[in-house]
Amino acid sequence: MKKMDYQNVRGTQDYLPAAEGIRRNMKRTLEDVFSQYGCKPLETPILNYTDLMASKYGGGAEILEEMYTLTDRGKRDLALRYDLTIPFAKVVAMNPTLTMPFKRYEIGKVFRDGPIKAGRFREFTQCDVDIVGVDTQVAEAECMLMAVDACEKLGLPMVIHYNNRKLLTGMLACIGVEKEKQSRVILTIDKLEKIGASNVVKELHAQGLSQQVTATIESFLQAGHSMDYFKRYAEESVDVQQGIAEIEALQSFLTSLAIEKQCVFNPFLARGLEIYTSTVYELFLEDGTITSSIGSGGRYDQAIGGLIGTDETFSTVGISFGLDVMYEAIRSTNQPASPLVDYYIVPLGKQTEALLVARELREQGYRVECEWSSKNLRKALTKANKEGVKYVIIIGEEEVEQNQYKRKDMQSGEEKRIPFRFA
Question: What PANTHER family does the database record attribute to this sequence (predicted)?
Answer without folding.
Answer: HISTIDINE--TRNA LIGASE (PTHR11476:SF7), HISTIDYL-TRNA SYNTHETASE (PTHR11476)
